[in-house]
Each structure stands twice: as C-alpha cells, then as structure tokens.
Amino acid sequence: MTRHIDFALALYEELNQELPAAGNLVWSPYSVASALGIAATGARGKTRDELARALRGDLTGLGRELTGAAGLDGAEMAVANTLWTRLGLTFEDDYQQAVLGWPGGALHAADFGGDPEGSRVKINADVEKTTRGLIKDLLAQGTITADTAAVIVNALYLKVAWL
C-alpha cells in the first residue's frame, strides 16, 4: 500500500500547487489510481512506462492493492470502474478481462457517434446509481462528442464513520 500512498501524496502536492486558490481540495486518490491503472493496463510502450512511473511502479501490484482497499471494515462502499466504448470498437480479450478484474469493473458499449448526448446521459446515470444519487452529472454537457472513442469512468461511494 505504500506505493499507493506515495502516489496519493505526490498527486496532492501537485494539485495543491496548481490549485492554491481553490481552498479545500477534496479528491479520491483511490479513484485517480483506479482510472489511471485501467488506462495503463491497456497502454503499451512509452505511454505505459509514463503511467507506471506516475502510479509508482508495478501495475499488477497496484490492482491488488486497490482490490484490497475496496473492502473496508465497517464501511458501505460501492465502486464503478467502467470502460465505455464506441459501438463496434473492440479491445483485446486480455484487456477486457483485466478491466472486469478491477473492483466494480464493467464494459459498456455506447453510441458516441450517433447519440453523444444520450451516451453522456447513460454514463451519468450509471455514476448516479453507484454513488447513491450523490453525483448526478459527472460529465458535463458537450464532454462526449461524435469523435469520442472510449471513456474510462471511476465513481466511488463511501459511507463510513469518521473519528
């Protein structure tokens, strides 16, 4: 878990420098690592190397760490790690199985080319369901276009008592 913590602290430091006027910064290192991990799993060459470096190392180990973190004692937690792809776009079976292996992993086809707005609404509905209605519009209008090929979405719902 130390690699995940190292990644989270490094990202927080970077975000804090980029957004100093934002005040309180709320984000989920788990979500960022999950989404980037899914992207890295399908990447090759320099892109994979850069993502692995950003995530602080072994991508297979990261997947195991995040899977372990998805089961917190005494917490109600729901995770969606979904890959939404353009109708007709195919990925290698190994990559599809890897996506399904992530906590909350799922694959969905969407008509980005013919109905980008309807596709955005479907993605947002899935996020809203996962987050028990707390996040209704993750993707703003216009973020999905007819040129969109794939979208990696992470949503996290966590209900736990805080000390």
Question: How would you describe the overall organization of this protein?
Answer:
This protein has six helices and three strands. The chain has helices spanning 2-18, 29-42, 45-54, 59-69, 93-101, 116-130, and strands at 76-86, 105-110, 150-159. β1, α5 and β2 (105-110) form a beta-alpha-beta unit. α2 (29-42) packs antiparallel against α3 (45-54) and α2 (29-42) runs antiparallel to α4.
- In N-to-C order, the SSE pattern is HHHHEHEHE
Helices, by number, come to 6
Strand fraction band?
Answer: 15-25%
Radius of gyration: 16 Å
* Mean model confidence by pLDDT: 84
Major beta sheet summary:
3 strands, mixed
Helix share, percent: 40-55%
Record field, number of beta strands: 3
Question: For the terminal residues, how far apart are their CA atoms?
Answer: 22 Å
Oligomer: single chain
What structural category arises from helix and sheet content?
alpha+beta
Low-confidence stretches: none
Shape: globular
Largest sheet, order of strands side by side?
Answer: 2-1-3
